[in-house]
Amino acid sequence: MKQRLTFKEWSFDFFCRVLPVVVGIAITFTLQGIVNRAHDRKAVRSAMELVRTELTANLQDIAQLTDYMKQEQISAKYLADHKDDLESCPKDIVNYHLGQVNADVSLVLSQNALELLKMSSLFPKVENNPLSMEIIRAYDACTLLESDVNRHYANRKGGSTPWLFNHNMAEYTSDIEQALGAIDLFLGK
User: What is the Cα–Cα distance from 75 to 58, expressed in whole angstroms?
Assistant: First the structure.
């Protein structure tokens, strides 16, 4: 026959059986938290790489547009300087400059990485708040530049002075370059 346990013996036996289970659960949750944080850090770093790549590509597109606009200004000046004697200018040069001035140009800068960052709920996991602000500012600059360029080329057809010719493109790119520097600093850690 089984001997009856006293409350003290029963509680000690219960404690000895439950303690390993509780400790095992605590260790499991702790390790799972460590694994989750490591996974989140890796995902944030990957997302930052995507953002960096996208902003770099946007800067390259802006540089190409800036080069085009400089050439467009040269072409517009050439046509304005020779407006009275275009007939005597070489036809291929005139056609080139007319093509530069009358080209249909638009700018589309990518924002896919930012959308991915927002939709994947990784944005709040970027623990560096100034970095988050730099990224948002950079994409805002991309949006502003995109709308300004498209407005510039839409309004240009009306014969008005091109709006962007009076503005410095570096004003737009400084936020993007600053964000790239902050991302590089983040990724270098």
Answer: 25
